[in-house]
Design brief:
The complex is a heterodimer. Chain A is built from 8 helices and 12 strands. By secondary structure, chain A is an alpha/beta fold. In chain A, the strands form 2 sheets. Chain A has a 6-stranded mixed sheet with strand order 1-12-11-2-3-4, covered by helices on one side. In chain A, strands 5-6-7-8-10-9 form a 6-stranded mixed sheet. Chain B is mostly beta strands. Chain B has a single domain, classed as Cupredoxins -  blue copper proteins (Immunoglobulin-like). In chain B, strand 5 and strand 6 form a beta hairpin. The chains are: A alpha/beta, B mainly beta.
């Protein structure tokens, strides 16, 4: 690779990615130039986000429901440069009223993603995984539903807005978040992962978190915050003042744009363009340009 | 009917908040129309509620099985529906049109299809 071309430019020129979306983080460069942040100096890196795999789903919206996740795993494994870590932003499995079947699906999902070359993988539940038993089965397989971790100077916060079936984060977790944020410098580089949108994207389709505004309020004093989430099975890019919110595509079926049709029903499978609307993304944090760069990858027939 | 832990929690919250809370648990005034709505996995009966613009109405909503939600965001009306209790939502529609309501408490495999419409006419 030409050393004067950075990794993002290479992906674009090689046609390996779809749309490249640059999310400027104001203040990031200034913050990064100082020692500090939760775990020392900042360093460029990239991670992969996969979302809404709905393992266990069967139906016409995806005739290859048993193959799509495996194709994504293979595609990530085939990347010439492997990501620092991988995150799944919820709805790992498709919901079932049967607790035994729920555990079976969670176990099968864990086995499939166990094939990822990168072993630094972070999970969180979606409502399909956790809302019928307050996350009990999910925790048996994947542990805590909200937690933090630090990576190369960025503080990552995983929030659970699904274990409560009313789509609430709740006072206890909000207090935990407030305590965590209080320990950070104001200009800490913060990335939030969660399943549902933290803002009222389209409450008519339940695309919201009932107390999500309280999270945004807690995050607001911090100038360098970006949120990545899933749930809506499509890309959406939204700003709440300086905080960017990016939703990811699904790996099972796409959903319609907010309010674009009467019902929130999956978009039909198009046999002439299989896997259309499905995909996963890379997120590259770049110090020099103070950007998070999102590169979208489609699911391709194997 | 036996309440699960979640139901008890919601009931306690509703009792503490009383009238004027988001769910608006109110008694119907003598002149106000009352419409009974029944919820069960995974539909509402009736699925279509017809109202007149500017005419107050009280929806009395019950659930036949588990905790449900009733949320009509376009009309600013929502309530938790607890087994064994009646959720009363007072509405004065200020605009004509067709508005969707849905269950916003995850209740099972058909939850995402659990919705209905409120038709408001002039």
């Amino acid at each position: 690779m030409n050393p004067s071309i950075n990794r993002r430019d290479f992906l674009r020129l090689a046609g390996l990615g779809g749309v490249v979306f640059a999310s400027r983080l104001s203040g990031l460069a200034n913050a990064a130039s100082r020692a500090g942040g939760p775990s020392g100096a900042y360093d460029d890196f990239f991670f992969v986000q996969l979302s809404d795999t709905h393992w266990g789903f069967e139906g016409p919206p995806n005739p290859d429901a048993k193959g799509t996740l495996k194709k994504a795993v293979a595609a990530v494994n085939s990347l010439a440069q492997q990501p620092d870590f991988i995150v799944f932003t919820g709805d790992l499995t498709h919901t079932t009223d049967d607790p035994h079947e729920r555990r079976k699906r969670l176990g099968e999902f864990r086995d499939i993603v166990g094939e990822l070359k990168v072993k630094n993988v972070h999970f969180m539940p979606g409502e399909h995984d956790a809302s019928l038993d307050w996350g009990k089965a999910y925790q048996e397989f994947f542990g805590k539903t909200h937690y933090t971790f630090d990576h190369k100077g960025v503080h990552f916060i995983v929030l659970d807005n699904v274990s409560d079936p009313a789509a609430m984060i709740g006072e206890e977790q909000l207090q935990w978040l407030a305590d965590d944020l209080q320990r950070l410098p104001k200009d800490a580089r913060i990335v939030v992962f969660t399943h549902r949108p933290l803002f009222d994207l389209y409450p008519q389709w339940d695309w919201a978190t009932r107390d999500g505004a309280k999270v945004v309020e807690l995050l607001m004093p911090h100038p360098n915050v970006t949120v990545f989430y899933g749930h809506i099975h499509q890309e959406n890019h939204h700003m709440t003042q300086h905080i960017a919110h990016h939703s990811a595509k699904s790996l099972i079926f796409p959903l319609p744009a907010p309010g674009s049709q009467p019902k929130r029903t999956p978009l039909p499978w198009d046999s002439t363009q299989p896997y259309q609307g499905l995909g996963w993304r890379e997120v590259e944090a770049e110090l020099k340009t103070a950007e998070y760069t999102l590169t979208e990858f489609p699911v391709q027939e194997g | 009917m036996k309440l699960n832990t979640y139901g008890l929690k919601l009931a306690a919250i509703a009792a503490m908040l009383g009238a004027g809370s988001i769910a608006v648990y109110v008694a119907a005034q003598p002149t106000e129309q009352v419409i009974k709505v029944s919820a069960k996995k995974f539909d509402y009966t009736p699925g279509e509620i017809r109202l007149k613009k500017g005419v107050p109405v009280v929806l009395e909503i019950t659930t036949q099985d588990v905790v449900m939600g009733f949320n009509a965001p376009d009309l600013g009306a929502r309530a938790d529906i607890i087994p064994g209790q009646v959720a009363r939502v007072r509405l004065v529609p200020n605009k004509a049109g067709t508005f969707e309501f849905h269950c916003d408490i995850f209740c099972g495999t058909g939850h995402e299809d659990m919705s209905g419409t409120i038709v408001v006419t002039e």
